[in-house]
Amino acid sequence: MNGRDNPSVTQDDGSYLRNFSERIISNQPQSNSNRNSHPRAQLSVSTEAWNTRNVSPLRPMHGLDFLSGVSTLHIQQTVDVSHLTSNIKSENLYTIKIPNGLTLYLASETSTKTQRLLCGVGRAFTMQIHDNTRQSVMQMERRLAAASCCFPCRLQEMQVITPPGDYIGRVQQQWTWVVPFYLVRNVNDEVIYVIEGPSSIDNRNMILGQFKILSSDSLREVGKISHRWEGDVNSFVTAIEFPHCAPDPKQKALLLAATFLLEYTYFERAKTSCLRFNCC
């Protein structure tokens, strides 16, 4: 055949392979110094003023981060009509909002039916707090105790635990004959705030009750916890105004736990009586 069907086979002298080897890239491209003269702009992930429209979607907020820029919170209970007519209370549910109505957290109580029947508002419970991403924010644990000055050996106390099980402090009632008195303690058991109630704690006064948040030396009022009727939502609301000197979210979490402790110890009884007998 003498290579007539494929002349390149008989006439190739190897130049094609030599040319192909020269086409192989053996050196990687080097960086150009001019490219480094303009560094890449940083992405904005700041969480300052998170409740404005200029929020970066690159890092979703969760947990205690929501408390960083908050000065006031409203706690509103989800009330079922059947709860008002039943002798056995159900486990409470709450929404925790900022004043413009945005919901930050959802709170759900876990307690035993026996204690809800026999102990009422003095029952022990665990309050689970979740954010809008369904992640656990904190857990508040209240022991079975009495709020009366007649039982000084077993007064109210609530501990606060954050995931994955870090104890950050507690709220502790102090025995007194005069006014309700609570201490807010951090993880080192140091008193960071004092909460002082009104001199009269009957249901009529507690329906619009107010507690002062004082400095650790009890000399200055730095915030307050109040219970009032909100016409906009047609419901009772427990409001907490955080101290301006409390930028740490953990301190705000402890004050939030103190608010729930006051809600159960004083406000819930007054609120239930008011709704049941239609006196408000």
Descriptive overview:
By secondary structure, this protein is an alpha+beta fold. Helix content is 20%, strand content 29%. It has 6 helices and 12 strands. It has helices at 7-11, 15-22, 81-85, 113-118, 203-206, 249-276, and strands at 72-77, 93-97, 103-110, 125-131, 136-142, 157-162, 166-174, 181-186, 191-196, 210-214, 221-230, 235-241. The protein has a 12-stranded antiparallel β-barrel with strand order 1-2-3-4-5-6-7-8-9-10-11-12. The radius of gyration is 32 Å and the shape is globular. The model is unreliable at 33-58 (pLDDT under 50). This is Phospholipid scramblase. One of its GO terms (cellular component) is plasma membrane. Residues 26-46 are annotated as: Disordered. InterPro entries: Scramblase. Keywords: Calcium, Lipoprotein, Palmitate.
In brief:
The protein contains six helices and twelve strands.
Query: What share of residues is helical?
Result: 10-25%
Order of neighbouring strands in the sheet with most strands: 1-2-3-4-5-6-7-8-9-10-11-12
Shape: globular
Strand content: 25-35%
Mean of pLDDT: 78
Largest β sheet strand count, sense and barrel closure: 12 strands, antiparallel, barrel
Structural class: alpha+beta
The gyration radius over C-alpha positions equals 32 Å
Q: Count of DSSP E strands?
A: 12
N-to-C SSE string, H for helix and E for strand: HHEHEEHEEEEEEHEEEH
Taking the alpha carbons of the first and last residues, their distance comes to 113 Å
> Low-confidence runs (pLDDT<50, min 5 residues)?
33-58
By DSSP (H or I, 4+ residues per run), the number of helices equals 6
Family: Belongs to the phospholipid scramblase family.
Biased composition (Low complexity): 26-36
Cofactor: Ca(2+)
Region (Disordered): 26-46
